[in-house]
Amino acid sequence: xxxxxxxxxxxxxxxxxxxxxxxxxxxxxxxxxxxxxxxxxxxxxxxxxxxxxxxxxxxxxxxxxxxxxxxxxxxxxxxxxxxxxxxxxxxxxxxxxxxxxxxxxxxxxxxxxxxxxxxxxxxxxxxxxxxxxxxxxxxxxxxxxxxxxxxxxxxxxxxxxxxxxxxxxxxxxxxxxxxxxxxxxxxxxxxxxxxxxxxxxxxxxxxxxxxxxxxxxxxxxxxxxxxxxxxxxxxxxxxxxxxxxxxxxxxxxxx
Length: 255
What we know:
Blueprint: H1 2-17, E1 25-29, H2 35-42, E2 46-51, H3 54-65, H4 69-73, E3 75-79, H5 85-88, E4 94-100, H6 109-118, E5 120-131, H7 138-142, H8 146-152, E6 157-159, E7 165-167, H9 171-180, E8 185-191, H10 205-218, E9 230-236
Parallel strand pairs: 1-2, 1-4, 2-3, 4-5
Antiparallel strand pairs: 5-9, 6-7, 8-9
């Protein structure tokens, strides 16, 4: 559910910001098992996946090995930490930088974000997927854990489903950070508005599209997107190569 929603939202932004058919240079920081990286490589883009977890790298390489030769040629996997992008790549090397599900594990995210912005060419897109720090009480509250719900107010710390103590980000804080690093917020969405407390597993086939449609609509509609479990923020780097202002994405944008 999360991957499909983020993919749809990301495709909307790419379609609005870049010419149709352009082969984009994509960096996926903390790519995990490579779901989004592989999807973009299949779409014809040149993709670099950066990951430090050896198990995730192994899974991603196995998945990549099963792809046709043309797709394998468009994707490379680099072992490394997202905080060290400057060690591996030159500034301005990418049109798109993804950082999905990473910031919650970083105690001080600002240096990481500044480094990611430096990787973007002018007019490039920075896509962040973060835990929503403004809605941390919702999950325990809906599950009837009143003590945990009360403890969630006034903090950005939480324990995730893996049992790890991590942190969330607030929309206002990230909006300010993106402006400060030269990639101001262009659009944002909510992800997992209705399904954050749903049981694991795939719903019946006849329910999947309805569920996705409901989640997708809620993720772009106030006030629902504000209480989503995750926030998908899209920032755009400065100006395009001609010096003109970066265009607004076609279709709806959400400021």
